[in-house]
Structures are given as C-alpha cells and as structure tokens.
Amino acid sequence: MSGKPKLHYFNGRGRMESIRWLLAAAGVEFEECFLETKDDLTKLQKDGSLLFQQVPMVEIDGMKMVQTRAIGNYIAAKYNLCGKDLKERALIDMYVEAITDLNELLMTHAFQPADKKEQHFATIVDKATNRYFPVYEKVLKDHGQDFLVGNRFSRADVQLLETLLMAEECKPDILAKFPLLQSFKARISNIPTIKKFLQPGSQRKPPLQEKDVPKLMKIFH
Hints:
By secondary structure, the protein is α+β, with helices and mostly antiparallel strands.
C-alpha cells in the first residue's frame, strides 16, 4: 500500500473538496477512489470502513478517518497549518468555521429546486457580501499582514481562497467592494503549491452541474 492518503468520495467537490485543497496546499500527493454507484458506498458501509456510515472518508497514517472537520483538523495539524499556539489555532478555527458555513451555502446551490434557486442565490450574495466578506476584509486591514493569522500561511488562508473562488464562480463581481480580499486572493493563489492546484489537470474539481445531481442522488439516497 502506498503512503499517499487515499480519498473516498464521488468525483466532484462536495465536502471532500476542502480536504483536497488542504492536502494540495501542504504539497501532499493523494489518490482518489471514486464512488460511482450505490453499491460502491454500500460496500464501504458493510466492510466497516465508515465509522458513521458516510463519506468523506480518508485513509491516512493507518486510519480510516471520517467527519470532514476531524479530517481537516488532522491534516492542518500534521502539516503545520494550524498556527503557532493555542490562541492562533482558536482564531483559525473561528475563521474556518465561518468559511465552512458560507461554503455549505455555495455547495448546495445546484441541489435547490427550480422555484427556490433565485432566492437561494440572493441569500448567498447577501450573506457573502454583508456577513462574511466584510469580516475577512477587516481582519486583513487590522492585522496588516499577508495572512489571516499570525504572519504565516494557515488552513484559514487555504479555505478562504477556496470559498472566494467558489463565490466568484457564482457571481463574478462579488469581490468588487473588497479590495483587500482581491489582493489576498491574488497573493495566496501565487503560493507554489496552490498555484499548481489551480492549473488545469490538477485534482481540483469543477463546479457541480445540475445534470450531475441525479447521479449523486442515486449514490447517496
């Protein structure tokens, strides 16, 4: 068995994408085992691989880890992406939790019924531009450093960039009123490991298309 982490999920973003981002940012190569059918998921459930009967699941360091936050916390700690002390880690956790809340909204947009899509889109834009982005803009202004916490690259920077790019896919001018976030996006995108992950042909997944939703529903429901 190779020493590379092995990711078990469908061939798309979902809750695994932030884990892919973290591993890529840390410069860690990983393998992927895609769930194509309901039987693929059932097999993992029956052989005891999924502690709570659900994916994402990551095989890493002899463990079969489930629960997205637990996996993210482990990878961040293993590769020194969680700050230099307890206070920095607390800040990073706070920033990441809020980013995850916005990410969930973005991620679920394709699953909205047609009559709810417009309202859901409006909610995304409202929360991004009035609740979340102003906070990160202020953090960058007050902190005066290149990164969100301390003066070093952390998990918070990785996850914020991921979500900024997702938000721009949803609404290309969504960062128009946030010059510091625009600069942050450009700066973090240029970190070599991130830059590599943003190139065509990487293991970064494209946005979920509506045509793919029925296939996912067959796997998971």
